[in-house]
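Hello support,

Our group uses your service weekly, and this is the first time we've seen a run hang past the timeout. The protein is Arginine-hydroxylase NDUFAF5, mitochondrial. I'm not sure whether the cause is the sequence or the server load. Input pasted verbatim:
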Amino acid sequence: MVAHKQEVVDQLFLIDISEKSLRNTRESEIPTHCVMANEEFLPFKENTFDLVVSSLR
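Update from on-call engineer: The timeout came from a worker crash unrelated to the input. Re-ran successfully.
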């Protein structure tokens, strides 16, 4: 039997330029931070995140 390290999400950052979109987020068990920002000028230092996922509609 091989033991696998399970990756977990400690925090979730939702970033959008629209305040309305940020207000329409779902409840989550993960601590979630909503940040209103333009994707070209994000208020985070380099290498802040381990994983980034983008969803354009």
